[in-house]
Amino acid sequence: MSTLVIVGTQWGDEGKGKVVDLLTGRAEVVVRFQGGNNAGHTLKVGGEQIIVHLIPSGILYPDTLNIIANGMVVDPSVLLHEKETLRERGYFQQDKQLIISDRAHVIMPYHKAIDLGREEILGNSRIGTTGRGIGPCYEDKASRMGIRVGDLLRPDVLTRRVRIALEEKNFLIQHRFNLPKIDADQVIEQYLDYGQQLLPHIMDASHILHTRISEGSRVLFEGAQGTLLDIDHGTYPYVTSSNVVAGNVCCGSGVSPTRIENVWGVVKAYSTRVGAGGFPTELNDELGEQIRKIGAEFGATTGRPRRCGWLDLVVVNHSVRLNGLTGIALTKMDVLTGVNPIRICTSYELDGKAVDRVPANIEDLNRVVPKFREVKGWDEPLSYCRSFDDLPKNARDYVETIEHLTGTPVNLISVGPAREQSILRKSPF
């Protein structure tokens, strides 16, 4: 048995896609266990950029099994478009490469309408969702009004559940958001068709996953978003609608906690976040703009510019504790080349008192004053480094400072967007 969980440790966009793509070459099964197409993983292979939103990153490897597990919410139209796009580019040539859990929930047209309608009404108080219907779909899951992937193969079940849902949703859509009524018959017809198109992939994913782990397969669980966007442990309410921490791997994919061996957290060498919410180390200056430009910090899903700031180890240590990290994958080290000195946030001050953890209240997070440690930067390019010793001394010192302050080994260092621009110090498998 060899299992590895990859999670984000900040506000998402840490470079999980590249890390997963690199490690997938050593895995046999890749599993997405939460979220939906509100996440995008950017992969760069042979100079070609590929962005996946729903399908796990392992799809680029023809012999790897990819699983969309029960904890995800699936927009069938997006999934089918993604499948078609990948096939046109020479990937995903066999249906057997992808399994979709029959227990995963389905994003319906009314979920997207409600998502967009709410954001419009909230105005300046909006959360900053992607408008993909993720939150309303998880709401229906919790209220037991949801539609699951397996229901798309059952005309009687789908018809009944859609009609019941739209009795409530259309009232909200028409009278609260002033949007057009959604026709139940059209939705039923369209989603039954989606079910037939997805039929080759729909299975009991938990049972298959259990079998593969028992057989000794190397399994990689791929998280979306980041720990500070977790619905319970993030900067609420500016969070996503699911649990993104490693503990949700078990619920979100149907495996036992005793089957999880390693958890690696992806840490960007600086901090970014998209949308509203507290960001203590944000750089609203020329340096922040420089990092955004060099790091190409624009959302893979929305294209929105990311807010940029110094590395915040209060945030990272929050993630180390919650996820039980056994290793760190440090990304985008190359973006900091030429920045001198480099600052690392090690604690906060709130109302004159030292704080070493992320406050639960967003208003308190907005008021904290970050406290920094300065380290020397480097001017040498990193993109050709292939071992830890190849890095300039100051870059090595930066890595070792992170290891010391988090108590966690940095097992992987990314020095560029391509697969080969990586330093793997310890293999997880």
In short:
By secondary structure, the chain is α/β, with parallel strands linked by helices.
Defining traits:
single chain, 429 residues, alpha/beta, Adenylosuccinate Synthetase, Chain A, domain 1, Adenylosuccinate Synthetase, subunit A, domain 2, Adenylosuccinate Synthetase, Chain A, domain 3, 10-stranded mixed β-sheet, 4-stranded mixed β-sheet, 32% helix, adenylosuccinate synthase activity, metal-binding
Question: In words, what does this structure look like?
Answer:
There is one protein chain. This protein is an alpha/beta fold. The protein folds into three domains: 2-102 and 201-262, Adenylosuccinate Synthetase, Chain A, domain 1 (3-Layer(aba) Sandwich); 105-198, Orthogonal Bundle (Adenylosuccinate Synthetase, subunit A, domain 2); 267-424, Adenylosuccinate Synthetase, subunit A, domain 3 (Adenylosuccinate Synthetase, Chain A, domain 3), CATH 3.90.170. It contains twelve helices and 20 strands. It has helices spanning 16-24, 76-88, 109-122, 134-142, 155-175, 184-198, 205-214, 248-253, 286-294, 313-323, 362-367, 393-406, and strands at 2-8, 29-32, 41-45, 48-52, 65-68, 73-74, 98-101, 105-106, 202-203, 218-222, 262-268, 271-273, 307-309, 311-312, 327-331, 342-350, 353-355, 369-375, 410-414, 422-424. The chain has a ten-stranded mixed beta sheet, sandwiched between helices. Strand 19 (410-414) and strand 20 (422-424) form a beta hairpin. Helix 3 crosses helix 4, helix 3 (109-122) packs parallel to helix 5 and helix 5 crosses helix 6. It is globular and about 65 Å long. Pathway: Purine metabolism; AMP biosynthesis via de novo pathway; AMP from IMP: step 1/2. Mg(2+) binds at residues 13, 40. Belongs to the adenylosuccinate synthetase family. The active site is at 13 (proton acceptor), 41 (proton donor), 141.
